[in-house]
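Explain this fold:

***
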Amino acid sequence: MYLEKEDWEEPACCFRPGAAAKELTAGQNAPSVRRVIEEYDRLIAMDAGTEAGKLLEFWQEEFETNGNWASQITILNEMMGFYRNTGEAAKGLAASEKGITLIRAHGMADTVSGGTTFLNAATTMKAFGKAKEAMPFYEEAFRAYGESLDPSDYRFGGLFNNMALAWEDQGDYRKAEVYCRKAMDIMEALRPGSILEIAVTWVNLAVLYEKWGQDEKIDDCLERAICEFRSEDVPHDGYYAFNCRKCAKTFDHFGYFRMKKMLLDEADRIYGENRRAL
Protein backbone atom coordinates (compact mmCIF):
# COMPACT_ATOMS: atom_id res chain seq x y z
CA MET A 1 0.00 0.00 0.00
CA TYR A 2 2.98 2.31 0.52
CA LEU A 3 3.59 3.17 -3.12
CA GLU A 4 5.71 6.02 -4.35
CA LYS A 5 5.69 7.28 -7.91
CA GLU A 6 9.14 5.90 -8.67
CA ASP A 7 7.91 2.40 -7.81
CA TRP A 8 5.47 2.61 -10.71
CA GLU A 9 7.47 4.40 -13.38
CA GLU A 10 7.92 2.28 -16.46
CA PRO A 11 10.44 2.15 -19.30
CA ALA A 12 9.47 3.64 -22.65
CA CYS A 13 6.32 1.98 -23.90
CA CYS A 14 6.70 -0.33 -26.87
CA PHE A 15 3.46 1.05 -28.38
CA ARG A 16 2.91 4.29 -30.23
CA PRO A 17 0.81 6.83 -28.24
CA GLY A 18 -2.85 5.97 -28.59
CA ALA A 19 -2.18 2.77 -30.54
CA ALA A 20 -4.01 0.51 -28.10
CA ALA A 21 -7.12 2.70 -28.09
CA LYS A 22 -7.19 2.90 -31.89
CA GLU A 23 -6.72 -0.85 -32.21
CA LEU A 24 -9.86 -1.47 -30.15
CA THR A 25 -11.97 0.68 -32.49
CA ALA A 26 -10.96 -1.18 -35.64
CA GLY A 27 -13.94 -2.70 -37.41
CA GLN A 28 -16.51 -1.67 -34.80
CA ASN A 29 -18.10 1.42 -33.31
CA ALA A 30 -17.47 0.65 -29.65
CA PRO A 31 -16.09 -2.39 -27.84
CA SER A 32 -17.55 -3.67 -24.60
CA VAL A 33 -16.08 -2.26 -21.42
CA ARG A 34 -14.86 -5.78 -20.63
CA ARG A 35 -12.68 -5.71 -23.74
CA VAL A 36 -11.27 -2.32 -22.77
CA ILE A 37 -10.37 -3.59 -19.30
CA GLU A 38 -8.77 -6.71 -20.79
CA GLU A 39 -6.58 -4.48 -22.95
CA TYR A 40 -5.77 -2.30 -19.95
CA ASP A 41 -4.76 -5.37 -17.93
CA ARG A 42 -2.59 -6.56 -20.82
CA LEU A 43 -0.73 -3.25 -20.90
CA ILE A 44 -0.27 -3.20 -17.12
CA ALA A 45 1.12 -6.75 -17.22
CA MET A 46 3.72 -5.43 -19.68
CA ASP A 47 4.59 -2.52 -17.37
CA ALA A 48 3.29 -0.16 -20.07
CA GLY A 49 1.74 2.32 -17.68
CA THR A 50 1.79 5.35 -19.96
CA GLU A 51 -0.14 3.58 -22.70
CA ALA A 52 -2.54 2.05 -20.16
CA GLY A 53 -3.39 5.50 -18.81
CA LYS A 54 -4.06 6.87 -22.28
CA LEU A 55 -6.33 3.91 -22.99
CA LEU A 56 -8.46 4.65 -19.91
CA GLU A 57 -8.68 8.35 -20.69
CA PHE A 58 -9.68 7.69 -24.31
CA TRP A 59 -12.51 5.31 -23.42
CA GLN A 60 -13.74 7.33 -20.47
CA GLU A 61 -14.31 10.22 -22.88
CA GLU A 62 -15.90 7.93 -25.49
CA PHE A 63 -18.33 6.32 -23.03
CA GLU A 64 -19.22 9.74 -21.62
CA THR A 65 -19.92 11.11 -25.10
CA ASN A 66 -22.13 8.09 -25.87
CA GLY A 67 -24.02 8.37 -22.56
CA ASN A 68 -22.87 4.93 -21.41
CA TRP A 69 -22.77 5.71 -17.69
CA ALA A 70 -22.37 2.08 -16.53
CA SER A 71 -19.19 1.65 -18.58
CA GLN A 72 -18.02 5.05 -17.35
CA ILE A 73 -18.26 3.86 -13.76
CA THR A 74 -16.13 0.81 -14.56
CA ILE A 75 -13.47 2.91 -16.28
CA LEU A 76 -13.49 5.54 -13.53
CA ASN A 77 -12.82 2.87 -10.90
CA GLU A 78 -9.78 1.73 -12.88
CA MET A 79 -8.67 5.34 -13.28
CA MET A 80 -8.79 5.93 -9.53
CA GLY A 81 -6.38 3.07 -8.91
CA PHE A 82 -4.17 4.02 -11.81
CA TYR A 83 -3.79 7.64 -10.72
CA ARG A 84 -3.11 6.59 -7.13
CA ASN A 85 -0.22 4.53 -8.44
CA THR A 86 1.15 7.28 -10.68
CA GLY A 87 0.70 9.97 -8.02
CA GLU A 88 -1.52 12.20 -10.20
CA ALA A 89 -3.66 13.81 -7.51
CA ALA A 90 -5.80 16.12 -9.63
CA LYS A 91 -6.78 13.37 -12.06
CA GLY A 92 -7.35 10.85 -9.30
CA LEU A 93 -9.57 13.13 -7.25
CA ALA A 94 -11.51 14.17 -10.36
CA ALA A 95 -12.17 10.53 -11.23
CA SER A 96 -13.32 9.91 -7.65
CA GLU A 97 -15.74 12.82 -7.70
CA LYS A 98 -17.16 11.83 -11.08
CA GLY A 99 -17.56 8.20 -10.02
CA ILE A 100 -19.45 9.13 -6.85
CA THR A 101 -21.67 11.53 -8.80
CA LEU A 102 -22.64 8.82 -11.30
CA ILE A 103 -23.33 6.27 -8.56
CA ARG A 104 -25.67 8.65 -6.77
CA ALA A 105 -27.33 9.89 -9.97
CA HIS A 106 -28.29 6.36 -10.98
CA GLY A 107 -29.45 5.11 -7.59
CA MET A 108 -26.59 2.67 -7.05
CA ALA A 109 -25.39 3.78 -3.63
CA ASP A 110 -26.60 0.60 -1.91
CA THR A 111 -25.23 -1.85 -4.49
CA VAL A 112 -21.93 -3.76 -4.55
CA SER A 113 -20.80 -1.61 -7.50
CA GLY A 114 -21.67 1.48 -5.49
CA GLY A 115 -19.71 0.17 -2.51
CA THR A 116 -16.67 -0.53 -4.65
CA THR A 117 -16.81 2.95 -6.14
CA PHE A 118 -17.08 4.53 -2.67
CA LEU A 119 -14.13 2.39 -1.53
CA ASN A 120 -11.96 3.33 -4.48
CA ALA A 121 -12.87 7.00 -4.17
CA ALA A 122 -12.13 7.03 -0.44
CA THR A 123 -8.80 5.28 -0.94
CA THR A 124 -7.87 7.81 -3.61
CA MET A 125 -8.73 10.68 -1.26
CA LYS A 126 -6.62 9.08 1.47
CA ALA A 127 -3.71 8.59 -0.92
CA PHE A 128 -3.70 12.30 -1.67
CA GLY A 129 -3.79 13.56 1.91
CA LYS A 130 -7.54 13.64 2.51
CA ALA A 131 -7.93 10.76 4.98
CA LYS A 132 -10.45 12.57 7.17
CA GLU A 133 -12.65 13.49 4.20
CA ALA A 134 -12.46 9.87 3.02
CA MET A 135 -14.00 8.32 6.14
CA PRO A 136 -17.70 8.93 5.26
CA PHE A 137 -17.17 7.18 1.93
CA TYR A 138 -15.54 4.18 3.62
CA GLU A 139 -18.63 4.02 5.81
CA GLU A 140 -20.88 4.17 2.74
CA ALA A 141 -18.87 1.33 1.20
CA PHE A 142 -19.35 -0.71 4.39
CA ARG A 143 -23.11 -0.14 4.33
CA ALA A 144 -23.38 -1.00 0.62
CA TYR A 145 -21.37 -4.20 1.02
CA GLY A 146 -23.41 -5.13 4.07
CA GLU A 147 -26.57 -5.08 1.94
CA SER A 148 -25.38 -7.81 -0.42
CA LEU A 149 -22.18 -9.54 0.70
CA ASP A 150 -21.31 -12.18 3.27
CA PRO A 151 -19.16 -10.72 6.08
CA SER A 152 -16.34 -13.08 5.04
CA ASP A 153 -16.28 -11.80 1.45
CA TYR A 154 -12.82 -10.77 0.22
CA ARG A 155 -14.09 -7.26 -0.53
CA PHE A 156 -14.49 -6.61 3.18
CA GLY A 157 -10.82 -7.52 3.56
CA GLY A 158 -9.84 -4.81 1.08
CA LEU A 159 -12.18 -2.33 2.74
CA PHE A 160 -10.81 -2.95 6.24
CA ASN A 161 -7.21 -2.79 5.04
CA ASN A 162 -7.75 0.60 3.45
CA MET A 163 -9.70 1.89 6.44
CA ALA A 164 -6.74 0.88 8.60
CA LEU A 165 -4.43 3.02 6.50
CA ALA A 166 -6.83 5.95 6.74
CA TRP A 167 -6.97 5.70 10.54
CA GLU A 168 -3.17 5.48 10.58
CA ASP A 169 -2.90 8.68 8.56
CA GLN A 170 -5.07 10.37 11.18
CA GLY A 171 -2.84 9.17 14.02
CA ASP A 172 -5.30 6.67 15.51
CA TYR A 173 -2.90 3.73 15.57
CA ARG A 174 -5.02 1.54 17.81
CA LYS A 175 -7.97 1.68 15.41
CA ALA A 176 -5.61 1.13 12.49
CA GLU A 177 -4.32 -2.05 14.10
CA VAL A 178 -7.86 -3.29 14.78
CA TYR A 179 -8.86 -2.87 11.14
CA CYS A 180 -5.61 -4.45 9.90
CA ARG A 181 -6.35 -7.50 12.05
CA LYS A 182 -9.95 -7.63 10.77
CA ALA A 183 -8.63 -7.63 7.21
CA MET A 184 -6.05 -10.29 8.07
CA ASP A 185 -8.70 -12.60 9.56
CA ILE A 186 -10.74 -12.45 6.36
CA MET A 187 -7.76 -13.00 4.07
CA GLU A 188 -6.34 -15.88 6.13
CA ALA A 189 -9.62 -17.73 5.58
CA LEU A 190 -9.27 -17.25 1.82
CA ARG A 191 -5.84 -18.83 1.33
CA PRO A 192 -4.13 -19.47 -1.02
CA GLY A 193 -5.77 -16.87 -3.26
CA SER A 194 -5.10 -14.07 -0.78
CA ILE A 195 -1.40 -14.66 -0.11
CA LEU A 196 -0.20 -11.40 -1.65
CA GLU A 197 -2.83 -9.39 0.21
CA ILE A 198 -1.63 -11.02 3.44
CA ALA A 199 1.98 -10.15 2.60
CA VAL A 200 1.11 -6.50 1.96
CA THR A 201 -0.87 -6.34 5.21
CA TRP A 202 2.15 -7.56 7.19
CA VAL A 203 4.26 -4.88 5.49
CA ASN A 204 1.65 -2.26 6.38
CA LEU A 205 1.64 -3.42 10.00
CA ALA A 206 5.42 -3.01 10.17
CA VAL A 207 5.07 0.62 9.08
CA LEU A 208 2.23 1.14 11.55
CA TYR A 209 4.26 -0.23 14.45
CA GLU A 210 7.18 2.05 13.59
CA LYS A 211 4.91 5.10 13.71
CA TRP A 212 3.35 3.82 16.95
CA GLY A 213 6.75 3.37 18.61
CA GLN A 214 6.38 -0.43 18.89
CA ASP A 215 9.62 -1.26 17.12
CA GLU A 216 9.89 -4.68 18.76
CA LYS A 217 7.05 -5.92 16.53
CA ILE A 218 8.49 -4.77 13.20
CA ASP A 219 10.85 -7.63 12.36
CA ASP A 220 8.21 -10.28 13.02
CA CYS A 221 5.84 -8.53 10.59
CA LEU A 222 8.48 -8.29 7.88
CA GLU A 223 9.60 -11.90 8.31
CA ARG A 224 5.99 -13.03 7.94
CA ALA A 225 5.65 -10.93 4.81
CA ILE A 226 8.82 -12.50 3.36
CA CYS A 227 7.39 -15.99 3.96
CA GLU A 228 4.28 -15.04 2.00
CA PHE A 229 6.23 -13.59 -0.91
CA ARG A 230 8.29 -16.80 -1.05
CA SER A 231 5.29 -19.11 -0.84
CA GLU A 232 5.14 -21.79 -3.52
CA ASP A 233 1.38 -21.25 -3.75
CA VAL A 234 1.55 -17.75 -5.19
CA PRO A 235 1.79 -17.32 -8.98
CA HIS A 236 4.61 -15.11 -10.22
CA ASP A 237 2.52 -13.02 -12.59
CA GLY A 238 1.96 -9.32 -13.23
CA TYR A 239 0.08 -8.91 -9.96
CA TYR A 240 3.00 -10.46 -8.10
CA ALA A 241 5.40 -8.08 -9.87
CA PHE A 242 3.20 -5.10 -8.96
CA ASN A 243 3.22 -6.06 -5.28
CA CYS A 244 6.97 -6.72 -5.34
CA ARG A 245 7.56 -3.15 -6.44
CA LYS A 246 4.98 -1.84 -4.01
CA CYS A 247 6.69 -3.39 -0.98
CA ALA A 248 10.36 -3.15 -1.98
CA LYS A 249 10.81 0.40 -0.71
CA THR A 250 9.49 -0.51 2.73
CA PHE A 251 11.90 -3.45 3.02
CA ASP A 252 14.69 -1.08 2.03
CA HIS A 253 13.57 1.42 4.67
CA PHE A 254 13.89 -1.22 7.40
CA GLY A 255 17.29 -2.46 6.18
CA TYR A 256 16.13 -5.61 4.41
CA PHE A 257 18.29 -4.84 1.40
CA ARG A 258 18.50 -8.38 0.02
CA MET A 259 14.73 -8.70 0.12
CA LYS A 260 14.36 -5.38 -1.66
CA LYS A 261 16.73 -6.56 -4.40
CA MET A 262 14.97 -9.90 -4.73
CA LEU A 263 11.57 -8.23 -5.12
CA LEU A 264 12.75 -5.68 -7.68
CA ASP A 265 14.71 -8.26 -9.67
CA GLU A 266 11.71 -10.57 -9.77
CA ALA A 267 9.40 -7.73 -10.84
CA ASP A 268 11.77 -6.80 -13.66
CA ARG A 269 11.99 -10.43 -14.74
CA ILE A 270 8.20 -10.88 -14.82
CA TYR A 271 7.54 -7.65 -16.68
CA GLY A 272 10.29 -8.46 -19.16
CA GLU A 273 8.83 -11.88 -19.86
CA ASN A 274 5.36 -10.42 -20.25
CA ARG A 275 6.57 -7.87 -22.78
CA ARG A 276 8.30 -10.57 -24.82
CA ALA A 277 5.28 -12.87 -24.67
CA LEU A 278 2.73 -10.21 -25.57
The longest helix spans residues 257-277.
